[in-house]
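Lab notebook, page 48
Experiment: co-folding of the full assembly
Goal: obtain a model of how the components sit together before planning crosslinking
Operator: M.T.
Materials (sequences as entered):
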Amino acid sequence: MSRTRQSGNSTVWSLVLFATLALFAATLYMIFIVAPVEQQMGIVQKIFYFHVPSAYAMYVGFGVSAVGSAVYLLKRDPRWDALGVAGAEVGTLFCLIVLLTGPLWARKAWGVWWTWDPRLTTTLLAGMIFAAYLALRSMGDAGEVEKRFAAGLALFGLLDLPLIHFSVQRWRGVHPTVITGKGGGLESEMYWALGLSFIAFTGLAVLLIWARASVERQREETARLRLELMHR
Amino acid sequence: MRALIAALVLGCTMLIAPLALADSPPEPDTTDAGVQEDAAEERATQFVGVRGPEAESIPGGALLLAAYAIVWALLFLFLLRMRGLQRQTAEELERLSAQIRASEGQ
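Observation: model returned without errors.
Model output:
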């Protein structure tokens, strides 16, 4: 990579980083100072402002992983494989956040930590599919077969994402649907807090995927050098 | 013989069918679409802000704190893991570079 391009990447990285940090500060201010406490659930509803954008960041991560995997299967370019790994890891991180923060809200709102609601179940399924992907990739230096199998798994995981999104509309469930256009929705201050949180989490997901893909590319390069040295 | 078997099967069916029907659960008085609509209507579709002072029956502060702590802790752990991977790769690269230099020097 040329020095100019590296410098340009570094500038974009710094810009996204500072913008994300500033957005997180503004988001926290909006959530805890500006947005009102919810009438029925009380203060625990504020989990919503991190829970929902985390779910969105999970979609971004898993989506990037599936795109990276698809292109890798077509071109066999390790850079796309690195993107697939990065997306899967970041998506799984946000999936874990969703699956841990959701029950804390549910305990207060529904009286139970967990219920086999369609959205909860399909989210757990996506988490398990991508956890299997990461388990497969963590078995030492992944060979070509493991990489291709994992790429197929990521594409299979992609099929679950629309199920998560539309399960709440298509099947019976108890998961709230406050931002789907039906019902009363949110108060304006709540919308602002959620909107800012969405942008901040998008920036965070982009930064994490970017950084993780860069590390993965370096690892690939190291593995290639090691192999070259062995064959000298 | 086949006619006898057919007659036996028919007889058994006629005897069992009323018993099976007697044990079957009563038909629901609403249609599937109606039930689905009811379930959808029971979901929360609105978050309303408190106007004026109001106390909570179950304090949710601890749950909120736990949720936010989990978010930051997981993000921190992920960054630590990435730092570990990067350090490991840098050390490996250093070792390989040394090997290449040594092999070129020979």
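Interpretation: The helical segments of chain B are 2-23, 32-42, 61-105.
Next step: discuss with group before ordering constructs.
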